[in-house]
Amino acid sequence: MIYTVLWGLLFAGLVGFYRVVMGPTVPDRIVAADTVSTILTTFLAVLYLLFDDMVFLDVALAFAVLSFVDVLVMAKYFEHGELHL
């Protein structure tokens, strides 16, 4: 059952990545990038369930925080054209 979930997440990530690359507008690409990062975080959490190794949860948590900041930076950059951090 876990392998089916992993394959489903992999397929959903590939579809999302296609939208990141071929998205018609920049906001579509930003939303797709956020979706792909959420799917990858879920993928890492399911890998924790499969292997029972805490390192997967640690990486998933760090990746979730970094991807949240990444989406905020991308949105601010594409809205204003420059970054004033």
TrEMBL record:
One Gene Ontology cellular component term attached to this UniProt record is: plasma membrane
Q: Which InterPro entries match?
A: MrpF/PhaF-like
**Key words, A-Z:** Cell membrane, Membrane, Transmembrane, Transmembrane helix, Transport
According to the record, the segments passing through the membrane are 6-23, 30-51, 57-78
KW Transferase (keyword) present = no
Reading the lineage from the top rank, the first entry is Bacteria
Where can this protein be found?
Answer: Cell membrane
Q: Which GO terms describe its molecular function?
A: sodium:proton antiporter activity
Mode of membrane association: Multi-pass membrane protein
Family the UniProt entry places it in = Belongs to the CPA3 antiporters (TC 2.A.63) subunit F family.
User: What name has this protein been given in UniProt?
Assistant: Multiple resistance and pH regulation protein F
Native source organism of the sequence: Dethiosulfovibrio peptidovorans DSM 11002
